[in-house]
């Protein structure tokens, strides 16, 4: 019991580390998960784009164009006309498209000029292509009506009618297609792996490092407690601390995601979190057997966890990563954690539990056991050779 | 005396393995992880529009067949890559297998599109259908009102007249380079650890060495300025090595001559050192110093886009004052603007802000440290 209590005291000393990583997780994890969350829909809906329009023309045709775009997209007037700032807004997804209608826009459209308006889109992106096509179609309709003898007002009204008539076309979603869209829960649990592994390695690594300090080790060795008792207290306390930190992160997610449509999947996300916790304890054991210096543990934790997070789809989606890197990622536990998250995200509540999901959990636990065993072997060897 | 202290400060800091590991090796390791994680996205534009694979199930002859052909056979920029299926089941199978992003199905007069999920690609497929219906409606209206103009209208439609042209910016680096700019900013802020260590070494209230130092007959300003110069030089060199590693080993380019990048990162390194001096001057507890330097580095780096690339621009469009005060965002912005637009007013704004912040923090720190005296008890 003395060893158990001592470990809890050591863990208590690390409260600032726990607080810092909890705040990082609570603020940045939920911020990035909310920012990247996508809603699953069973009925077809047009994707609305954020379009910034600078209308310097304020003419009948330009107003008609803006009115028409407002029916299908989110149109905003930007608070700046600085083109570089607007370009940055497009590149970093604040807007999907920026449309600049010059003063002589109407005259140029009527004259059939090809440079009537200017736009900024993210390179040769699909968003840019789609928006340009919508605008081109509207202006082409206006020109067709003008060329057939209609007035400006009639042409704009005609183009609007044509747009309205085409809006009845039917699209539907085929069920049972893997969508790959990430929800808030998937996003926040994915981010939690970074915070949890950092916490486990830093706190558990420091605890084990302190206990394995040669002087402390000798003092424990001469105590009356048996070998079994000592180890039970040691790893029991490590488990309690780990469960407390994991529980803290899970509790935050539970509160932050109340009312989420995927709330029923939480037990599976928690199972996955427990699997990565086991793995984290294993990594912490291994690192603490290499060094007992808390600064070195901290550095190794940062290097290992941040690198793994970037290589295993925690910060960057796996779909955009190269296949060669993903091949290497198979040998890292976080890859299987991310795969499990994606699996839960892609399947209905009833369909999650199955061989695939269990294998993802199993691989993480096996990684954990493997790291734990390596840690014990290194520690044993060091003890044997009195390193 | 300045040179003597300067040389020994450099030796002392270089012999500390933690500084080499945290300030040099860790950022290099992270840059390598970034490169393997999304280096391919920097070299190849992930948003580049490519023809959308789509299925087409035709059950009767319709002009829509011609639309499919024209959209897929455009040699310059094909919009669709059409696979034709004889029945809907085949098309469904292809959609479920991910071979196509959707399929058009034509039953008599009705054409509809079936997709796997909502999104921009599905909206594009839907838009093609809308465009087809739109043109039918326009031709019907013109045909009813002015039948003599119908041939000219068809010609106009076929010519696909363009009214828009893109605004072109001359200099361009990938948006994913922002992660590397942020990483350089983080490495620069890690310079604060060098300066807190340096300051502990000359503060009697922090270390035993500090006691010996303070009792030596040397002016405090001399030892402080020599220590500052040594840490700034060291951090500048560490940043330089990181920049060279990114440019020459990872083969990712900053978009401008390297000396310009090195000047900016050296200023960034100096800012990191100044932040460390400031924290060291105000905070006397070693543990709190560590927590503050780590906290400032990590929070600033996150807000500049180290883990979520878009966040700096989101802040810029909503609460720009945060970016004006965040040292990592200043350095990231400076490198981003330099690489994409050259030496514009935004570049100078961030560069001058960094210089001002460095000087301001140093001045306050010197004022605080100058007043720190120890009585002989």
What do you see in this structure?
The complex is a heterodimer of chains A (387) and B (377). Chain A is mainly alpha-helical. Chain A folds into 2 domains: 2-39 and 178-384, no CATH class; 50-166, abc type-2 transporter like fold (3-Layer(aba) Sandwich). Chain A has 16 helices and 5 strands. In chain A, strands 2-1-3-4 form a 4-stranded mixed β-sheet. In chain A, helix 3 packs across helix 6. The mean pLDDT of chain A is 85. Chain B is of the alpha/beta class and 377 residues long. Chain B folds into 2 domains: 2-44 and 178-370, no CATH class; 52-159, D-Maltodextrin-Binding Protein, domain 2. In chain B, 68% of the residues lie in helices and 7% in strands. Chain B has 16 helices and 5 strands. Chain B has helices spanning 2-14, 17-43, 64-73, 88-96, 120-145, 150-159, 177-189, 191-201, 208-215, 220-249, 258-282, 286-304, 311-318, 320-325, 327-341, 345-370; strands spanning 52-58, 80-85, 102-107, 110-115, 164-166. A 4-stranded mixed β-sheet of chain B has the order 2-1-3-4, with helices on both faces. In chain B, helix 3 (64-73) links the parallel strand 1 (52-58) and strand 2. In chain B, helix 7 (177-189) runs antiparallel to helix 12, helix 8 (191-201) packs antiparallel against helix 10 and helix 10 (220-249) packs across helix 11. Chains A and B meet through helix 2, helix 4, strand 4, helix 6 and helix 7 of A and helix 2, helix 4, strand 4, helix 5 and helix 6 of B.
């Amino acid at each position: 019991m003395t060893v158990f209590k001592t470990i809890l005291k050591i863990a208590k000393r690390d409260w600032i580390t726990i607080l810092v990583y909890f705040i990082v997780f609570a603020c940045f994890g939920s911020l990035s998960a909310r920012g990247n969350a996508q809603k699953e829909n069973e009925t077809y809906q047009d994707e609305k784009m954020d379009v910034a329009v600078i209308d310097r023309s304020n003419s009948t045709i330009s107003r008609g164009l803006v009115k028409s775009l407002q029916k299908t997209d989110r149109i905003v007037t930007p608070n700046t006309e600085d083109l570089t700032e607007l370009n940055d807004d497009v590149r970093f997804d604040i807007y999907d498209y920026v449309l600049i209608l010059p003063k002589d826009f109407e005259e140029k459209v009527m004259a059939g000029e090809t440079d009537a308006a200017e736009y900024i889109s993210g390179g040769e992106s699909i968003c840019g292509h789609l928006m340009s096509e919508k605008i081109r179609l509207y202006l082409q309709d206006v020109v067709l009506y003008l060329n057939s003898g209609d007035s400006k007002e009639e042409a704009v009204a005609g183009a609007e009618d044509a747009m309205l008539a085409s809006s009845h076309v039917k699209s539907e979603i085929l069920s049972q297609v893997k969508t790959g869209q990430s929800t808030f829960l998937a996003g926040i649990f994915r981010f939690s792996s970074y915070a949890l592994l950092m916490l486990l390695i830093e706190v558990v690594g420091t605890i084990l490092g302190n206990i394995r300090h040669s002087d402390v080790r000798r003092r424990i060795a001469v105590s009356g407690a048996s070998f079994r008792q000592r180890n039970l207290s040691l790893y029991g306390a490590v488990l309690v601390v780990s469960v407390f930190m994991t529980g803290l992160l899970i509790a935050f997610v539970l509160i932050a995601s109340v009312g989420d449509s995927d709330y029923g999947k939480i037990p599976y996300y928690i199972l996955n979190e427990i699997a990565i916790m086991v793995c984290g304890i294993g990594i912490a054991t291994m690192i603490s057997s290499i060094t007992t210096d808390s600064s070195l543990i901290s550095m190794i934790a940062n290097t290992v966890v941040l690198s793994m997070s970037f290589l295993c789809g925690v910060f960057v989606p796996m779909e955009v990563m190269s296949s060669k890197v993903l091949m290497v990622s198979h040998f890292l536990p976080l890859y299987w954690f991310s795969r499990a998250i994606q699996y839960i995200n892609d399947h209905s509540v009833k369909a999650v539990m199955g061989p695939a999901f269990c294998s993802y959990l199993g691989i993480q636990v096996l990684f954990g056991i493997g790291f734990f065993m390596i840690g014990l072997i290194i520690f044993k060897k060091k003890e044997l050779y009195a390193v | 005396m300045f040179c003597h202290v300067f040389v020994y400060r450099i030796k002392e800091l270089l012999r500390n393995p933690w500084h080499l590991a945290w300030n040099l090796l860790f950022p290099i390791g992270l840059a390598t992880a970034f490169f393997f994680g999304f280096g391919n996205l920097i070299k190849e534009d992930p948003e580049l529009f490519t023809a959308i694979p789509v299925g087409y199930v035709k059950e009767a002859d319709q002009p829509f067949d011609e639309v499919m052909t024209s959209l897929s056979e455009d040699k310059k920029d094909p919009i669709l890559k059409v696979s034709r299926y004889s029945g809907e089941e085949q098309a469904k199978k292809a959609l479920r297998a991910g071979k196509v992003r959707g399929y058009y199905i034509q039953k008599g007069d009705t054409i509809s599109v079936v997709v796997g999920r909502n999104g921009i690609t599905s909206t594009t497929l839907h838009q093609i259908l809308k465009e087809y219906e739109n043109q039918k409606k326009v031709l019907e209206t013109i045909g009813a009102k002015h039948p003599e103009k119908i041939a000219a209208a068809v010609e106009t439609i076929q010519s696909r007249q363009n009214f828009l042209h893109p605004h072109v910016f001359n200099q361009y680096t990938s948006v994913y380079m922002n992660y590397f700019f942020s990483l350089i900013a983080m490495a620069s802020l890690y310079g604060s650890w060098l300066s807190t260590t340096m300051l502990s070494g000359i503060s009697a209230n922090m270390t035993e060495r500090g006691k010996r130092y303070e009792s030596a007959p040397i002016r405090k300003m001399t030892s402080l300025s020599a220590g500052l110069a040594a840490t700034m030089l060291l951090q500048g060199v560490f940043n330089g090595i990181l920049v060279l590693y990114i440019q020459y080993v990872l083969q990712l380019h900053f978009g401008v001559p390297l000396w310009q990048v090195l000047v900016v990162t050296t200023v960034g390194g100096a800012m990191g050192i100044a932040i460390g001096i400031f924290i060291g001057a105000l905070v006397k507890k070693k543990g709190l110093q560590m927590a503050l330097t780590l906290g400032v580095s990590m929070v600033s780096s996150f807000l500049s886009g180290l883990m979520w690339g878009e966040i700096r621009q989101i802040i810029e469009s909503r609460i720009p004052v945060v970016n004006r005060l965040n040292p990592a965002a200043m350095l990231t912005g400076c490198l981003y603007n330099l690489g994409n637009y050259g030496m514009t007013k935004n570049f100078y704004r961030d560069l001058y802000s960094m210089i001002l912040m460095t000087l301001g923090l140093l001045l306050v720190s010197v004022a605080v440290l100058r007043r720190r005296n120890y009585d002989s008890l």
